[in-house]
């Protein structure tokens, strides 16, 4: 709400001058944002200037133990229930001190805008209301916990965020109060999925998500959260914890990469390729499709290794693989079986289409030369090609056919493609 609208509202409030003279602290809010704060309310919170409070979410001053209950009182105000009965609550003064108050809130309509007027009276120690040791312990826990505690309202705007948000996401809690929770997700739809899951099951535990750090990088978190309902089962929002698991995710990804990716070439290693191949054959048994297997062997690679050394041989293999990768389709499965032997599964590909792809790669190899020491070295490949069948379990049956086709090419001097269908 802009400053001009706020001033229009305040000018339209006939009781504002009388309210200013009232000794009890009062405040006016719109969507929980403070529009007006009396000097006595400023004093209650031990502040110096009313302007400091304007625009802030009133729930950011509420103690976490009372946060849900006070939020509930704001949510249930409506035309049929325009006023809440007095209640005790704990609030934060600006110096961090916890104060105990009795508060009451009422729904008003001023200049066409629904506002809530809140009034509060501080309870003195003489009235027998002291901060208990358990509250102090809770406060220390809340401020020092490594996980981030959060709470939202029914519209999924943040109403409470723990101090750990600074170390995990780079935000001070007061920077994010009142903002949509979805705005901190790398994929906002992921937040919608979480809300749907919580509304359906009541809670989630260790739910993975990716959040955006203030500096822009992605933070992997796990969220444990539950729904908040009023006494009459009205959905009020959610509360829970999320923790930074970026390091664990990174380690898991590295381990997965080590287990599935060939370190030298960056394509699938033998084990991962064969796993995908066997899975595909099982799929073919349920849903038939035309797929091909090509087994590829780099011609005359051993002499290159023997003459120029393994580092030069590794360089040749990388260039060789790059020629295939830039030509293959996204659906194709490319892996290194070992040494200078590779394999490709062409998904949903006819024999003529597969031959055309392999021919383009052969033509690229004919046009390049690789400088090793003081010599220019050319490369070529022998390729055996066969159709995949649903009977190819174990997958070694298909590999054997492709190897026989590859052997024919080798016998005829290499640098060619041979097909074998049986």
Automatic annotation (TrEMBL):
<dbReference type="InterPro" id="IPR035965">
    <property type="entry name" value="PAS-like_dom_sf"/>
</dbReference>
<dbReference type="Pfam" id="PF00990">
    <property type="entry name" value="GGDEF"/>
</dbReference>
<dbReference type="Pfam" id="PF13426">
    <property type="entry name" value="PAS_9"/>
</dbReference>
<feature type="domain" description="PAC">
    <location>
        <begin position="205"/>
        <end position="257"/>
    </location>
</feature>
<protein>
    <submittedName>
        <fullName>Diguanylate cyclase</fullName>
    </submittedName>
</protein>
<dbReference type="InterPro" id="IPR000014">
    <property type="entry name" value="PAS"/>
</dbReference>
<dbReference type="InterPro" id="IPR029787">
    <property type="entry name" value="Nucleotide_cyclase"/>
</dbReference>
<feature type="domain" description="GGDEF">
    <location>
        <begin position="289"/>
        <end position="422"/>
    </location>
</feature>
<feature type="domain" description="PAS">
    <location>
        <begin position="134"/>
        <end position="200"/>
    </location>
</feature>
<dbReference type="InterPro" id="IPR000160">
    <property type="entry name" value="GGDEF_dom"/>
</dbReference>
<dbReference type="InterPro" id="IPR000700">
    <property type="entry name" value="PAS-assoc_C"/>
</dbReference>
<dbReference type="InterPro" id="IPR001610">
    <property type="entry name" value="PAC"/>
</dbReference>
<dbReference type="InterPro" id="IPR043128">
    <property type="entry name" value="Rev_trsase/Diguanyl_cyclase"/>
</dbReference>
<dbReference type="InterPro" id="IPR052163">
    <property type="entry name" value="DGC-Regulatory_Protein"/>
</dbReference>
């Amino acid at each position: 709400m802009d400053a001009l609208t706020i001033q229009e509202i305040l000018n339209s409030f006939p009781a504002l001058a009388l309210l200013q003279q009232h000794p009890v602290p009062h405040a006016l809010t719109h969507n929980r944002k403070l529009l007006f704060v009396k000097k006595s309310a400023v004093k209650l919170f031990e502040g110096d200037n009313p302007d400091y409070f304007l625009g802030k979410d009133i729930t950011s001053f509420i103690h976490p133990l009372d946060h849900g209950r006070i939020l509930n009182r704001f949510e249930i105000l409506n035309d049929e229930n325009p006023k809440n009965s007095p209640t005790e609550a704990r609030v934060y003064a600006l110096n961090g001190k916890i104060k105990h108050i009795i508060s009451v809130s009422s729904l008003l309509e001023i200049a066409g805008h629904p506002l809530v007027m809140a009034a509060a009276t501080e309870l003195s120690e003489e009235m027998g209301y002291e901060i208990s040791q358990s509250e102090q312990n809770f406060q220390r826990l809340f401020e020092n916990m490594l996980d981030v505690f959060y709470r939202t309202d029914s519209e999924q705007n943040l109403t409470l965020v723990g101090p750990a948000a600074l170390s995990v996401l780079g935000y001070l809690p007061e920077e994010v109060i009142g903002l949509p929770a979805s705005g901190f997700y790398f994929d906002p739809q992921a937040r919608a999925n979480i809300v749907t899951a919580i509304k359906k099951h009541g809670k989630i535990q260790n739910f993975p998500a990716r959040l955006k750090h203030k500096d822009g990088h992605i933070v992997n978190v796990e969220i444990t959260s539950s729904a908040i309902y009023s006494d009459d089962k009205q959905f009020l929002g959610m509360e829970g914890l999320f923790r930074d698991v970026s390091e664990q995710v990174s380690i898991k990804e590295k381990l997965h990469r080590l287990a599935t990716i060939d370190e030298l070439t960056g394509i699938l290693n033998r084990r991962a390729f064969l796993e995908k191949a066997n899975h595909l054959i099982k799929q073919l048994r349920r849903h038939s499709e035309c797929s091909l297997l090509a087994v590829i062997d780099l011609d005359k690679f051993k002499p290159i290794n023997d003459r120029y050394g393994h580092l030069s041989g590794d360089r040749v293999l990388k260039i060789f693989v790059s020629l295939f990768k830039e030509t293959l389709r996204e659906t194709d499965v490319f892996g290194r079986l070992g040494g200078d032997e590779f394999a490709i599964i062409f998904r949903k590909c006819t024999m003529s289409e597969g031959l055309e792809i392999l021919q383009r790669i052969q033509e690229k190899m004919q046009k390049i030369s690789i400088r090793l020491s003081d010599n220019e070295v050319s490369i070529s490949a022998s390729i055996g090609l066969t159709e995949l069948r649903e009977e190819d379990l174990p997958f070694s049956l298909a590999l054997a056919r492709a190897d026989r086709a590859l052997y024919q090419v080798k016998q005829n001097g290499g640098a060619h493609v041979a097909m074998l269908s049986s």
